[in-house]
Specification:
This protein is mainly beta and 652 residues long. The chain is 3% helix and 52% strand. It is globular, with a radius of gyration of 24 Å.
């Protein structure tokens, strides 16, 4: 099943027969925004060009709630969870502008065109089960509510350079349906293959739309829609279902399909040639994650070892495994017209490093391409790349933009991560620091720290020649999860804020932790191609309290507990290292802002620490249990449960 967007939790899907689980993928692809291209005539030039070097621009803090998107001029739309409600913003090339909401608390940006128009979905109200509305936003018009087909909720999934939006809409307990919208004719129902569920996920400048719909069998099939021919089933690779990811300028569709042999395979469909299996060299499964207008493809291969590698595909060269930096896995996220593929790869220490790749060149660590970066900054993942060479990357200081040297420098200081222990003890002094650089060496800087517990402090600053650092210490009196914000302001009033989440434990706490694990393919049950980082923080209930809190986030899933209980689980529950202890935390929570979910989290201390999480809900129609996430039972689960960054403390 595809990278189902957050909307899957707000537009319930009817399930019919044995194909129900596959159909549930449906709400897909809200996050499958088409990224800029990989032009054939740019490949040779890119392979011989000198490597670009980049300056850093801080965009925002928090965890991604979906992958960011960038247009040809380097403008960016992105969505972050920063300790409050998930919100979206737009970088116009000089400053970051919040998109606002449709009346509720949450907004998600799905796609961006070259004119700076954004589409996505936003809550219209703050009820326990909020209604989501599709929107089109621009700096000139603000947020325009696209509306719905028949009431209920809607989501904008894709937008072309004419400002036309494709998405889905549906009422509560009804399957969503695909729509097309423009400012002249409004919202238009595109139909379905069987009268049941459908969703539009991509649109090109000619108005061709790709999506998926339940066929007569109840299984989801990819479709194309044109004004002339209406909705057309483009079939599968012999298996039960298929899903699209992107469309090309000439009407090509790329996605993945289940095969008769029981594998997932990347496909490229054309009207003349039908659906073509692109293979999976060295592996068993392959998935398209991005495609250019010229039908150059980037994605992943699932290897026989259970690991996942980034791949690139062209008609002339076929599929190429991009490899890693010596670690277990890698993942491609985006391509541009210069033939540049970006993503992340693990090094020999299993640390994530942002990469750039061009045909004919080796995988390049973008951390080695930075100019005047603040101390401690690490680029962990490259998420989107523009035709002008700019790259959006996730770092340990939040979301950043890498602008090639030679493009305009921005006046705000560039700030690195807040350096602090992942776990702190209540009542003990905690020392933190933050480093920064500035393009103006003569600037003087002020650094203020918001500790997240209603107290603030001005830090001691040491600086010289446009580079500096600040430090301070603080005592937290109560256990909990706190966000430390460091705001760096220069002489002209330009400022940049970064945030770091810390977990404070008390003697009464039996378990606490904060950090990141790598969730393996298969853990996200509605997105078999999804693998990668998952961030978490938790504090178990104290001995005299019923509190406790869990936060868990991937680029598709946001989970917050609403109730928690704790009990010893035994180290064997997660194969904890010798001497480790294990606890199980369980209760109820919200997934992507919606109530009705349960979870069971098993955590273990030890040399690395382990984290095994299961999230599930009851189907509103059949009442059957539906698993949403489970990295404790997924294939290659040991890699998914092992802590790769942070700390977990468990005691009896």
């Amino acid at each position: 099943m595809p990278a189902i967007d957050k909307q899957v939790n707000h537009l319930p899907i009817q399930r019919r027969g044995p194909a129900a689980l596959v159909a549930a993928v449906a709400m897909v692809a809200l996050g499958a925004a088409i990224v800029p291209a990989l032009a054939q005539d740019g490949v040779a030039a890119a392979a011989t060009a000198p490597p670009l070097r980049y300056r850093v621009v801080n965009l925002g803090t928090g965890e991604l709630t979906r992958l960011p998107v960038i247009n040809a001029s380097g403008q960016v739309a992105f969505s972050l969870f920063d300790g409050g409600a998930p919100l979206a913003a737009f970088f116009d090339g000089r400053k970051v502008v919040p998109l606002g909401t449709l009346g509720g608390l949450e907004t998600y940006a799905s796609a961006l065109n070259d004119s700076g128009q954004v589409t996505g979905f936003s809550t219209r109200d703050n009820s326990p089960v909020p209604r989501f509305g599709a929107f089109r936003w621009s700096a000139a018009t603000g947020m325009i509510d696209i509306g719905t087909l028949n009431g209920g909720s809607s989501s904008g999934n894709a937008i072309n350079n004419k400002g036309e939006v494709a998405g889905n809409s549906g009422a509560a307990l009804e399957p969503p349906h695909a729509f097309r919208w423009n400012s002249t004719s409004g919202i238009e129902y595109l139909g379905s293959l069987s009268g049941d569920l459908s969703s539009a996920v991509a649109i090109n400048d000619s108005g061709l739309i790709a999506g998926f719909s339940n066929a007569a069998s109840g299984d989801a099939h990819s479709f194309v829609w044109t004004r002339r021919n209406g909705i057309e089933d483009i079939g599968t690779l012999g298996g039960a279902f298929s899903y699209p990811q992107a469309v090309g300028a000439r009407g090509e569709v790329a996605g993945y399909s289940y095969t008769a042999a029981g594998h997932y395979r990347a496909y490229l469909w054309t009207r003349a040639g039908g659906m073509r299996d692109l293979g999976a060299p060295g592996g068993v499964d392959s998935f398209v994650l991005a495609m250019s207008p010229q039908a150059h493809i980037a994605g992943v291969i699932n290897l026989t070892s259970g690991n996942q590698h980034a791949m690139a595909w062209t008609a002339s060269a076929g599929m190429v495994d991009l490899g890693t930096f010596g670690g277990a896995g890698s993942r491609a996220a985006s391509v541009n017209n210069l033939g540049q593929v970006v993503g992340w790869a693990l090094d020999k220490n299993q640390a994530m490093r942002a990469f750039s790749w061009n045909r004919g060149q080796a995988l390049a660590d973008l951390n080695g391409r930075l100019v005047n970066a603040p101390a401690g900054l690490v680029l962990e993942s490259a998420d989107a790349v523009s035709d002008n060479g700019a790259i959006v990357a996730s770092s340990n200081a939040g979301l950043v933009l890498l602008r090639p040297v030679g493009q305009d420098s921005l006046p705000a200081p560039v700030v690195g991560p807040v350096q602090a222990p992942a776990l702190l003890r209540a009542g003990a002094a905690a020392s933190v620091s933050v480093a920064f650089t500035d393009a103006q060496p003569s600037d003087i800087h002020r650094v203020t720290l918001d500790w997240g517990d209603a107290s603030m402090e001005t830090a001691i600053v040491t600086e010289r020649g446009g580079a500096g650092s600040a430090s301070a210490s603080h005592v937290y009196r109560e256990a909990g999860v706190y966000g430390i914000r460091a705001r760096v302001t220069d002489s002209a009033g330009n400022s940049t804020t970064v945030r770091r989440e810390v977990v404070v434990e008390a003697a009464s706490q039996k378990a606490a932790g904060s950090g990141r694990v790598l969730a393996p393919a298969g853990a996200d049950r509605h997105a078999p191609q999804q693998a990668g980082p998952a961030w978490f923080s938790f504090v178990a209930p104290g001995a005299q309290a019923s509190g406790g809190k869990l936060y868990f986030n991937t680029t598709r899933l946001d989970f917050q507990s609403t109730a928690m209980s704790a009990a010893p689980a035994g180290a064997a529950a997660l194969s904890a290292s010798a001497g480790g202890q294990a606890w199980q935390l369980s209760g109820t929570g919200k997934l992507n802002g919606k109530d009705g979910y349960r979870y069971a989290l098993t955590v273990a201390s030890g040399a690395q620490g382990q984290f095994g999480l299961r999230i599930w809900h009851s189907d509103p129609v059949t009442r059957a249990e539906v698993v949403d996430f489970d990295n404790g039972q997924a294939p290659a689960a040991a890699r998914g449960t092992t802590l790769v960054q942070g700390a977990i403390a468990v005691s009896r």
